[in-house]
Design goal:
The complex is a heterodimer of chains A (498) and B (346). Chain A is α/β, with parallel strands linked by helices and 498 residues long. Chain A has 17 helices and 24 strands. In chain A, 49% of the residues are buried. In chain B, strand 1 and strand 2 form a beta hairpin.
């Protein structure tokens, strides 16, 4: 085998403002190897991928192609060099057909412009090679995530990519689809492609990869041969500490039912979802990206309509499609994307905290600044918020502290049911533990917590019960004692008969 | 090799393709049906509406807006908008007329080329502001709408050019016919066919759709987004310059206020014609049909003796109806795709 790596990163660093996303990381990719990139959320994997794909330029360090230093001024350069990236969220053109998505900018041409027949045949040939059934003329809008990824892989194949980076490609796939993807990956490996594979599922790394590089908090921890280490070793490298200390869920006695969801259905999104959350309980809603978890939360909170079923809060039926009614009934929703949905980034900390509960800080028709400030100060202390001044825009806070502001906003209303969607995504480890402590305390004080999380350790450590969704259906309900990484993942990927 | 794939696929993917095709065609077909109904009803009330003189008038009236709608479509497809077209028409119409009036010896072809070039320069200013300086198109072209008109006023200084000041060979551009079809309409038709072909069959044409459909993905796909956006504005500006020439030739009397407010008619035509205002889909054929429909309605309302003030309101209602129709169709397509995907998954 060739001893020169196709692509190397040498001592690469990248910072965004004060956040050092990647610190002096080196990585060699050899032809014919599948290299795993491991690390927790926020460890710097995505930034590294964006450096490889030319989206970000490293602040320091070099990129070597066939041993020669190169600079990627943009994604076009990286593609030219044979680097193709399959992103977690495929980036397709929804209005255009599948074949145009594959060949955009490189459509086969005849004398009379684009040769659609040749393009259709080439696309079909690629799909045959991948062993998948897709219609080249179908618009990309409406494809499942798995199919969108296949379009992306077909695109990479058509470009004769030498380095294929797959950023959590399996996160939203079912068992069959994963097997199919691995088949494709192995074929590419045999053809001399270098693959960089990112996944949160350890067993997939151990099945597919030859080497693994682990990142933690932006730094390089180790590069090992998969054969030399065990999954436990890998977890220890990723986390850098024992798991038990991280998730301090207090034992509480479950009280009366606070939230009751009955046969909730939104056509084409989720079907027949029924569950209860009791006061003092933390119930986790686990599943793969795209399984319909956030959609269920949005429907419960009244953002989206539902087609059938019911939601009861404290024994009273909730009016559908009304966030106002949901809030009045004591529901609170901390959304997945805090920058877009949870906060007004330009507004101050105190104003953001005051947003969801104006009644308490109102004097007649006006908002009382003094009342707003004192309430914000009170919550800042209770949540141990780290800030310079309450009048600062939330934009300047770290991700974890921003999340605390979102929490404070809702907690200030004194909700009886709190729904949190990915509460610790993109938050550093220390603050993560604090958010967990907070959720645990809330449950202890009698709040019913429904937590959507894609991080298994968080689910297993925090939840009294684990509900698992797969393709729009609730497929398993596991009490704490039975919830393990294996049982949850099996249900989430549809591999169990549950 | 594709035999198994296609036979199995025709059930699953074919349904979606048919659906989307149908919706896309429904828009253009819908306009054709609306035109047919309009002509049938108005013709029944007043048969002169279907006469040659009336049809010729409608073609003449819609030609310039159709030409501008084609240019506007290029820009709208990329998820931008050009509000300054009317000012570019005014500037080029007046500029061309003035040069001809002051220098009778200048060949007409040179004047046409000059107007198109001037339009392209105006388009380049818009393109650089939007594509390179990243000023939102709505704001940038609103600014140039005033700026270009201001240049026009300063240049004119209150002057007016009359038909008598311009050579007949130039005026013929706006008034003569070929086989009974007015020349401006033929020009618009040729431009329509050429641009329509380019958008469908050239890589650069497809890239305009890609940019409007998903700007971030366009960057990741290595498309030179900036260059394409500038090009779309330049082409739109050049077509506005051509429209300015036709305007001057057709109306003969030109001052600095020419075409004021026309940009809204153009955008209305584009939207009625089914071009998505947020980019990524729609055709120039639809936009041109939209222009034809709006011009026909204006004529029909005049024939039916509807108050001129009410006509504006009716045009507005039509525009809203078109957008509502779009929205309903889009929601239905999304729901159908969702349901289908779900069925397949189960």
């Amino acid at each position: 085998m060739d001893l020169t790596p196709v692509l190397s990163l040498s001592q690469v660093s990248k910072a965004f403002g004060a956040v050092r996303a990647v610190r002096e990381v080196s990585l060699d990719l050899y032809p014919g190897e599948v290299h795993a990139l491991a690390g927790e959320n926020g460890a710097g994997k995505s930034t590294l991928v964006k450096i490889l794909s030319g989206v970000h330029r490293p602040d320091t360090g070099r990129i070597l192609l066939d041993g020669e230093p190169v600079e990627f001024a943009g994604p076009a350069d990286a593609q030219q060099a044979g680097v193709a990236v399959i992103y977690q969220e495929p980036t397709l053109f929804p209005d255009l057909s599948v074949m145009e998505n594959i060949f955009m900018g490189r459509q086969p041409r005849s004398r009379f412009g684009i040769d659609r027949r040749a393009m259709r045949e080439a696309a079909s040939a690629l799909f045959t090679r991948l062993g998948v059934r897709l219609d080249p003329d179908q618009p990309a809008r409406g494809l499942s995530i798995a199919d969108q990824q296949l379009v992306e892989i077909a695109k990479a194949l058509s470009r004769q990519a030498r380095v294929l980076v797959m950023d959590e490609p399996t996160a939203a796939l079912s068992g069959n689809e994963v097997a199919r993807l691995f088949g494709v990956a192995k074929t590419l490996r045999e053809q001399g492609c270098a693959l960089l594979f990112i996944s949160h599922r350890l067993e997939e790394m151990f099945e597919l990869c030859t080497r693994v590089t682990t990142l933690r908090d932006g730094g390089h921890v180790a590069t090992d041969l998969i054969a030399d280490i065990t999954p436990d070793d890998l977890v220890r490298r990723m986390v850098g500490r024992e798991l038990d200390a991280l998730f301090p869920k207090q034992e509480t006695d479950a009280g009366e039912v606070a939230l009751k969801v009955g046969r909730l259905t939104r056509e084409g999104v989720f079907t027949d979802v029924s569950f209860e959350v009791r006061r003092g309980e933390i119930v986790a809603l686990a599943g793969l990206v795209g399984a319909g978890r956030s959609e269920v939360a949005r429907a419960i909170f009244g953002i989206d309509r539902w087609d059938a079923g019911s939601v009861e809060v404290g024994g009273r039926r909730l009016r559908p499609a009304s966030p106002t009614a949901a809030m009045a009934a004591g529901l609170a929703l901390v959304p997945e994307d805090r920058r877009q949905q949870g906060l007004v980034m330009d507004l101050s900390i105190e104003r953001n905290i005051g947003l969801a509960g104006p009644a308490a800080v109102r004097r007649g028709p006006l908002v009382s600044r003094a009342a707003e400030r004192s309430r914000a100060a009170d919550w800042a202390v209770r949540l141990r918020l780290k800030y310079a001044r309450l009048a600062d825009p939330v934009d300047v806070l770290s991700g974890g502290n921003q999340q605390k502001v979102v929490l404070a906003k809702w907690l200030a209303r004194g909700p009886s049911v709190l729904i949190v969607d990915e509460p610790t995504r993109g938050i550093d480890v220390g603050t993560k533990a604090e958010v967990h402590r907070l959720l645990s305390e809330l449950a202890g004080s009698g709040v019913a917590v429904l937590m959507i999380s894609s991080e298994l350790p968080e689910v297993l450590g925090m939840a009294d019960r684990v509900l698992v969704m797969h393709e729009g259906r609730l497929v398993a309900e596991l009490p704490r004692a039975q919830a393990t990484e294996e049982t949850v993942m099996a249900a989430a990927t549809g591999r169990s008969a549950a | 090799m594709t035999a198994t794939a296609t036979s199995a696929e025709s059930v699953r993917g074919g349904g979606a393709r048919r659906l989307v095709d149908r919706v896309a065609r429904v828009r253009e077909l819908g306009i054709v049906i609306a035109l047919a109904v309009l002509f049938a009803v108005t013709g029944a009330v007043n048969p002169t509406f279907l006469g040659y003189a009336s049809l010729r008038d409608i073609l003449l009236n819609s030609a310039i807006v159709a030409l501008l709608a084609v240019g506007q479509t290029l820009v709208v497809i990329t998820r931008n908008v050009d509000l300054s077209v009317s000012s570019v028409v005014g500037l080029t119409a007046f500029g061309g007329a003035l040069v001809l009036a002051d220098n009778p010896g200048v060949p007409v072809a040179v004047v046409i080329a000059g107007c198109v070039l001037l339009g392209a320069v105006c388009g380049a200013v818009n393109g650089l502001l939007v594509g390179v300086a990243k000023v939102p198109a709505l704001v940038a072209t609103l600014g140039t709408l005033y700026a270009f008109r201001g240049i026009d006023y300063a240049w004119a200084g209150g002057r007016q050019v009359n038909a008598a000041d311009m050579p007949d060979s130039f005026l013929a551009l706006g008034t003569s016919s070929v086989l009974g079809v007015p020349l401006p309409a033929l020009v618009a038709l040729v431009v329509l066919l050429v641009v329509g072909w380019m958008l469908r069959n050239l890589r650069s044409g497809r890239e305009l759709y890609a940019i409007g459909s998903n700007p971030e993905a366009a960057v990741l796909a290595g498309i030179r987004v900036r260059r394409r956006i500038v090009a779309a504005f330049v082409a739109g500006g050049a077509l506005a310059g051509l429209a300015g020439v036709l305007w001057a030739a057709r109306f003969g009397t030109v001052d600095a206020t020419v075409a004021t407010g026309k940009e809204l008619d153009v955008i209305a035509a584009v939207v009625v014609g089914g071009v998505a205002i947020f980019g990524g889909s729609g055709t120039v054929y639809g936009a041109a049909l939209g222009a034809l429909l709006l011009a026909s309605i204006t004529s029909a309302l005049a024939v039916l003796r509807v108050d001129a003030l009410a006509q504006t309101a009716i045009n507005g209602a039509l525009l809203i109806a078109a957008i509502v129709l779009d929205r309903i169709l889009a929601l239905r397509v999304a729901a159908a795709l969702r349901r289908r995907r779900f069925r397949d998954a189960a």
